[in-house]
């Protein structure tokens, strides 16, 4: 299994066409999963999506590949790990962070873009513990938040 310790993410950069193409292949599943994620968290911990609480589902997922603002990529023996920062157009400073996994299609070595298939790995959510022990939850990030390795 690839981990932050076993693979090296490259530097944050604007998405190139290969990343945009990968993003486009998972876009429908990303939108579906983001809506499900918000509904699940709203049942137990609505703070995850607090900054988007007034948005409809359609407004929350109104992004397209042109809203993929930045990416970081890592290569492992298993394939490509693409981390992306996606602007939510209906929020002033609202972004989601996504992780996409690209692997070789059956019968290929995955060395070219057309030999890879992509799947949504996860949408980043964060639970942080403050100094006073209070917990802070979020699934919507800000532009200046770092795009780091995540599993959730």
Could you characterize the architecture of this molecule?
This protein has 152 residues and is an alpha+beta fold. The chain has one domain. Helices cover 21% and strands 28% of the residues. The strands form 2 sheets. A 4-stranded antiparallel sheet has the order 1-2-3-4, covered by helices on one side. The chain has a two-stranded antiparallel sheet with strand order 5-6. It is globular. The two termini are 14 Å apart.
Fold topology:
Blueprint: H1 17-44, H2 57-60, E1 68-75, E2 80-87, E3 95-104, E4 116-123, E5 126-129, E6 135-138
Antiparallel strand pairs: 1-2, 2-3, 3-4, 5-6
Number of strands: 6
Strand content: 25-35%
Helix/strand order, N-terminal first: HHEEEEEE
Mean pLDDT across residues:
93
Sheet with most strands: strand arrangement: 1-2-3-4
Which key terms come to mind for this protein?
6 strands; alpha+beta; two-stranded antiparallel sheet; single chain; 152 residues; 2 helices
What's the gist of this structure?
It is built from 2 helices and 6 strands.
């Amino acid at each position: 299994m690839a981990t932050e310790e076993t693979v090296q993410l490259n530097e944050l950069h604007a998405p190139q066409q290969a990343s945009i193409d990968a993003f486009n292949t998972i876009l429908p599943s990303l939108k579906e999963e983001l809506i499900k994620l918000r509904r699940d968290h709203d049942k137990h911990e609505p703070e995850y999506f607090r900054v988007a609480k007034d948005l409809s589902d359609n407004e929350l997922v109104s992004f397209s590949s042109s809203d993929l603002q930045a990416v970081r990529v890592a290569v492992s023996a298993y394939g490509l790990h693409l981390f992306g920062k996606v602007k939510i157009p209906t929020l002033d400073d609202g972004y989601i962070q996504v992780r996409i996994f690209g692997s070789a299609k059956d019968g290929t070595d995955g060395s070219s873009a057309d030999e890879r298939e992509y799947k949504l790995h996860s949408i980043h959510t964060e639970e942080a513990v403050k100094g006073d022990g209070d917990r802070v939850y979020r699934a919507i990030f800000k532009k200046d938040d770092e795009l780091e390795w995540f599993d959730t």
